[in-house]
Amino acid sequence: MASAPQRTASTHRSAVTRGAHEFQIVGYRARKSLARVTDSSSKDAGAPLLAGGAPCTIKSSAFQVGGYNWDLLCTFHDTGHRHLKSVTLELLGTDIASDVIATASLRIGNPLGRWPPAVWLSDAVNTFTKKAYGRSWKLSLPDAFRWHEDRYVSTDDRLTILCTVEVFQEDAAATAAEPTKCFVSPVPPPTIAREFRKLLLLLETKCLETSDVKFIVEGTQIIAHRLVLAMRSPVFAAELLGHMRESTTRHVTIHDMSAPTFRAMLRFIYTDEFPINRSYSMTRDLLVAADRYDLGRLRLMCENILVESINVMTVMSTLLLVRGRQSCHQLEDSCIKYIASDPDVYAAVGGYDWTMDVYPSGHSTVGGENSGEYISVFLRLDTDPGTAGVKSSRSFRIDDPSGKAPSTVLASDIITIYTNECKSWGYRKFITVKSAKSQYMAHDGSLTIHCDVEVTKAACTTSASTTTIAAPAIQHCLTPRATISLAGNGPM
After folding, report:
1. pTM for the complete prediction?
2. Mean pLDDT across the stretch 440-450?
3. SS3 helix, strand, coil % of the chain, rounded to 5?
4. Which in 95, 97, 207, 435 has the greatest CB count within 10 A?
């Protein structure tokens, strides 16, 4: 009797490794108009020259993707306006054992965020041979960049090119064939992240057919997909798919946010990656956006970057940014610990002790006609101001009882001088008790008031061990908050 045929199976693993390199060409316009002789010390002395002697090719630094070294070669036209002609991806190295299969894309962003990025995405793979003559790939420049080159050069004459490379890799060592009762194809790696990235590229090229909502930010129209935003943000879910007004319209106006910040937030929503711009100002704006739309992962990314950026120049502005935000306690604690870590640092950011005096039934000198109708607040200096006094301004704000919105600033002052004769400034009629109860009183009958102090000091330099700290002319200091009870303070 013939035995049943035996089936065997083996495994061959494949994967795609992605990497991105940002190449900044500083002096982009200047290099097109300069006519200079190539420096004799140039590493590429034999490179072709533009009319007048300027090199018509420049290279990026080497970068690594998939275990291979790469670089970008930018070529300029040698006549006319000397525009960027092409970008070539080059595979480097002399010990390439086998052919390398890869795809690539180019992204050139508009520095002001007023126009969508210029994007080119390869529609086929390219094979870089192990032979020396087959290791370069001339990429196509995005059409938007060719037609509107000036849009993509920053005011400081800088062109930024982002090249993303994906290398297809195979595991050469396949597992030995073994008998098995069934035979199916191996499960490929997940591709959802790549598909969402393609979806974002469609938005950046203004493919209106795929979008179903349009945001108006600073007069700029930005398109997106309701379902994607709702899936990533509970706030967007409530606005776009719930019973709010935004759910019934295709145009949503965004206030109190810049267009570059909104684009950067959308990039995170679609790719789960932090935007390319990691500047202090952009990270601050993104933290506010992440807190506003409840994007926990983005908020933590921003907090980590801001923690690493804490210094004597940024600590108080960062503290003021996160003060009162329920989800940023770790960053707030880091700022406070930094201020308290060294006497010289503390002196550089203020060095004064303050007390906020709050009178729930009005200040005693207000008079009978106002007594009990208004809440009075004053900021008192507890440190000796000296003969010169202390110049400062202050603003008082009240917490939102729900904790969902930032504190509301109700009063702010111009610069005043605290002296030994006058060490307290504030407002006798800060807010009526009736308004405080109806708008700002928490469920437990409490009212929380903050006071932000801006102290003006002459520029100075202090030294802590071997570290020199230069204090700016204006420093910020935040006083502790005051919480009072309004539960039994007269009728509403």
Report:
1. 0.41
2. 77
3. 25, 35, 40
4. 435
